[in-house]
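Chapter review: from sequence to fold.
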Amino acid sequence: MQTLPKTFRDAIQVTRKLHIRWLWIDSLCIIQDSPEDWETQAAQMCMVYRNAHLTIAASSASNSSIGCFTTRNGHQIRPLELPFTVPGSASTSTRLDGSSRPTFLSFGPTPRERKDQTTLPLETRCWTLQERVLSTRVLSYEAGTVAFYCISNECDEADPSGRFYEEYSHHHKQLQRSFLYNRSFDGKLADAALSTKITTPNEQSHHMSWTGVVENYTERQLSYNRDKLVAIYGIADA
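The token string follows.
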């Protein structure tokens, strides 16, 4: 195992700590010098992400030698949970089930400050858009923190309650729910979105979802131009 790149070794360590038996690493599980195997497997990545128990994202790593884990000051990241709530303050809120969230006091940058000031290397790559959108759960190792994203909530170590993410990523979560649970797409999202006849709210939703995907996708980078269509095929086929 020591011959593997650091990111792969870190992912194996995380998988073992979570007591998950199987780990898919595309550059290992897809035969890299076989165009036939690559074309077959690339077309199935939609199902790989959808059916995975969890996707591990080395979001701060620019290549496989960097690894998942970063050195950070834990005192600046982990907030202090206060044993009371402040009525009427911005730090208190109510969950969807009616229960109250605890009050947290953080001494480091807020999640919004980190998101606004930092572009994660993983978020600049075209291939990783479908990974983020189609995965039901993502454990993301980011600059100085660990974040967790799923259909119902998004949070990180500095914002365990997910209050910031409710405001920041509402549109993304709606988009993700559409891909994972809206079976009216019927595997033809792109066809429905590009239709010249948009007459129903459902068709309008398809159009807006696909437009948002394409806008995000075209802001990212590809190592090989030949991958331009196949890297978004999983989402188009959702």
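Two observations follow directly from the output. The first strand starts at residue 55 and ends at 57. DSSP finds twelve helices and six strands in the chain.
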